[in-house]
Amino acid sequence: MANKERSLIAVMGDEDSVTGLLLGGIGHIDGKQKANFLVVDSKTPLDKIESTFEEFVKRKDIAIILITQQVADDIRSMIDDHDQAFPTVLEIPSKDHPYDPTK
Amino acid sequence: MSARMNVFPTRMALTAMKIRLKGAVTGHSLLKRKAEALTRRFRDIVKRIDDAKRKMGKVMQVASFSYAEVKYSTGDIGFQVRESVKAAQLKVRSKMENVSGVQLPTFEMFSDGQNSFELTGLGRGGQQVQKCKDTYAKAIEVLVELASLQTAFVILDEVIKITNRRVNAIEHVIIPKIENTIRWIGSELDEQDREEFFRLKKVQNKKKIAKDADQKERDNANAEKDAAAAAAPLNILAEYEEDEDVLFK
Q1: With contacts defined as CB-CB under 8 Å, which chain B residues touch A61?
Q2: Shortest CB distance from B67 goes to which of A4, A20, A93?
Q3: For residues A52 and A97, which has the higher predicted lDDT (pLDDT)?
């Protein structure tokens, strides 16, 4: 498993969650202006979310994808289909959605 | 479902099959033990994941609150933060751990060094921003740990399924196959023995019959001689009669 290169933590979620996590220091923009985070708000189209998720999954340098439960619900089928060990998909609570352990 | 293997029914094949059966039984019990150990570990991980998730929920809430505080005192710094992202400071490293034969990755967080958030432009909120940054850093630590557990969970699940499949395959396919082969070889060998025995008996019989026939012929020949001999009984007196009278001649 070539995971020596996998080192980044990607984020997908609402503005506050993403900003907070970026403040923590996981944000990364590489030379080609590709970011490892996506702010999802009510105006973001569904296919943008889906394509970003797919892109994050395909990228070889992302080890973990953090995604708020709201956004995860939007692309629930894609997340369920993702059964690879790398990158790991982790659902996190957001401000308005306190953690739901049943998901 | 083929019941047995294609071998010649010889004693050598029988011994070979017996050895194989022993190997299969040992392999089966070993694999079963491995599956049990893995399942135990799996359950342990599930419990740890549950705990970690609750912890994450709490830690994220704390972080959110501190962010709200920052927003209150400094205004929305979101845009600034997003724009000032360059290279990630917090990254993860994966280490492989061997758990009863399975390579499980664990994520280790490490700091890449450069602190690209000088954030000097945020003035009076600087301290709060720093505090928020720290809370989020702590939250990320918890998240990384959870992610490790989750990967372990997924991988273990897969491995357990494979191992169980192998255990079942050995138990329900391989061992019966070998046993059937052994039984079949045994029965073939028995039949060969019986054939051998029968052939032997037949040959013995034939020999016996031939011998009997011989004996009978000889008996017959003797019997004729006897009969011939018996037809002319020994007349001892007759011998005497041929003697001339010596006195009265």
Answers
A1: none
A2: A20
A3: A52
- Rounded-to-integer distance, Cα A54 and Cα B147, Å: 18
Q: How confident is the model at residue A74 (pLDDT cuts 50, 70, 90)?
A: confident
Please, what is the angle between helix B11-74 and helix B126-169, to 10°? 160
CA dist A71 and B117 (Å) reads: 27
pLDDT in tens, A9-44: 888 888 888 888 888 877 777 777 788 888 888 888
DSSP-derived pairing of the beta strands A88-92 and A8-13: unpaired
Of B60, B103, B147, the CB nearest to A88: B147
Q: Which residues of B touch A66 (CB under 8 A)?
A: 143
Provide the β-strand partners of residue A8: A62
- Residues in contact with B41: Cβ distance below 8 Å, sequence separation at least 6, in sequence order: B99, B100, B156
Measured between alpha carbons, how far is residue B44 from residues A99, B17, B37, B54, B187 in Å? Answer: 22, 41, 11, 16, 50
Residue A22 to residues A16, A26, B135, Cα–Cα distance (Å):
10, 5, 12
Q: Which token pair is A41?
A: 């708000």
Residues of B in contact with A80 (CB under 8 A): none
Partner-chain contact B64 A86, CB within 8 Å = no
In angstroms, what CA-CA distances link B212 with A19, B168, B215, B217?
114, 64, 5, 9
Q: Is A73 helix (H, G, I), strand (E, B) or coil?
A: helix
- Alpha helices per DSSP H over B101-174: 126-169
ipTM of the shown complex: 0.82
Per-residue pLDDT tens over the stretch B133-182: 888 888 888 888 888 888 888 888 889 999 999 999 999 999 999 999 99
In A3-103, which ranges are continuous DSSP H helix?
15-24, 46-58, 69-74, 76-81
Query: What pLDDT was estimated at residue B12?
Result: 92
Using a pLDDT cut of 70, give the percent of chain B over it: 86
Contacts of B129 (CB under 8 A, 6+ apart): A23, B70, B74, B77, B119, B122
What backbone torsions phi and psi does residue B214 show, to the nearest 5 degrees? -55, -50
- pLDDT score at B95: 85
Q: Judge whether residue B120 has pLDDT over 60.
A: no
